[in-house]
Amino acid sequence: MVAGRVAVGLMSLLVLTGAGVASTMLISLAGGLNTSDALDPSGPKSLGSDQNILLIGLDSRKDQDGNQLPKEVLDQLHAGDGSEGGYNTNTLILMHIPGNGGKVSAVSIPRDDYVPVQGIPGYTKVKIKEAYGLAKFCAEQNLAKQGITDKAELEHKGREAGRKKTLETVRNFLDVPIDRFAEINLAGFYDLATALGGVEVCLNHPVKDSYSGADFPAGHQTLNGAQALSFVRQRHGLDNGDLDRTHRQQAFIASAAHKLHSVGTFTDLGKLQDLIDTAKRDVVISSGWDILAFAQHAQNLTGGDLEFTTLPIAGYEKVNGQDVNKVDTDQVRAAVRVAFGLVAPAPVTPQIRASATVDVRNATGKSGLASTVATALAPYGFRTGQLANTAATASSIAYGAGEKDDAATAASLLGGLPIAADSRVPKGHLRITLGTGFSLPAALGPHGADAAPGTPAAAATSAGTASAAEPPPAAGPQGGTVDGSGIPCVN
């Protein structure tokens, strides 16, 4: 269930290399990191001096040899008794570092994206987070049949198989090269966050969640290692669940980079040594990665010239009893190319322009639906107001003074909901109630036939597939970009 730990691990590594740390310390770091041969050296490469780096966050409560973390560590992490987690890659972020020194772009792959997989017996598609653990299990079964029983050897070779399958699956899904990768597990996140001496984050709303241990007020606050883990683990109680948690990951990376770049961080030799020791203990990087040479490519990470995008999903469905994200592969690949600056985005000129603020009340019991509807209406000009759950009732739209036309537009987009004037609704507002049984019409989703003309959704429908120049869809639960230039506020 953990997310974001790899980001801090690699951010520490990247920022250390890019912030003018003494060469003797860099040499010490480069010589002591754990390395992996999972990345095929003959695979596709980025053009010129561009680099794509995959950050892998492994949801494991075990160390590199397969030993369970000590109970006192698990207690600090609020992460159960060690039996949870398995080997899911609950964080997958592909970071693009242009060779010309331009903006660094990172795309987050939602962990439940249902994607094709190759070479795993019994599976043709999996949640992308599962590729690592399934490949590891199969490899260990085969090794055991060959008579290999040493626990550490099985763990090491099993993890290598998991890394290879993850790299292959991500590369095939996104259709872009992967030049380097870094992996870190649960303990590594905690160690690195603690070594930073706390990281400032910002929340739009107060949160309290017993599953992750998150219990924070709204606004800016500094979190210690255990609190930071709760911050990036929380998904219960968030409107868009895992997708909102992805924004937490992104915000934490930005905040960690800000802290690493702050005055004093790199003049404190004790803190630097803690970061280096933690990286040596907890981070695994692809073999052949020349950390000293890479230093000159990492400058923008230290300056905050960094932007995050969450890749779009096409909806939700159940497969064998599991909730998965449906994806449109062409649309996802187009979003990656736009985010990485490989193509220019097409112009977006919606023709339907409403102006009302929508207050959405969710009576369906489906978590996050109010936010999903508000986000889906945004490309048409509707502004997002208050979002809340309410008791079971029928679907309807009530409108304030002067908003009858916008109410009719919203009603049509949402499948023909009844509308009525209501003096209790403020001027300029609509009160949309999502009654029992309501579901978002397919026409309003990322590929809807009724999408606003000129939007990515409409272009995808008319063309049959998303063109390579399309930007990510403006509407969708994945939300917008997260600015890595400071400390962004998130849900």
In short:
The chain is of the alpha/beta class and 491 residues long.
Report on this structure.
With 491 residues, the protein is α/β, with parallel strands linked by helices. The chain is built from 15 helices and 22 strands. It holds the Pfam family LytR_cpsA_psr. This is Cell envelope-related function transcriptional attenuator common domain-containing protein. InterPro entries: LytR/CpsA/Psr_C, LytR/CpsA/Psr_CW_biosynth, LytR_CpsA_psr.
The strand line-up of the biggest sheet is 1-12-7-2-3-4-13-21
What is the assembly state of the chains in this entry? Answer: single chain
Query: What Rg is obtained from the alpha carbons, in whole angstroms?
Result: 23 Å
- Counting DSSP H or I runs of 4 or more residues, the number of helices is 15
Compute the number of structural domains: 2
Percent helix, as a range, is: 25-40%
The CATH topology of the largest domain corresponds to: Aminopeptidase
Domain LytR/CpsA/Psr regulator C-terminal: 356-438
Protein name: Cell envelope-related function transcriptional attenuator common domain-containing protein
Region (Disordered): 447-491
InterPro entries: LytR/CpsA/Psr_C, LytR/CpsA/Psr_CW_biosynth, LytR_CpsA_psr
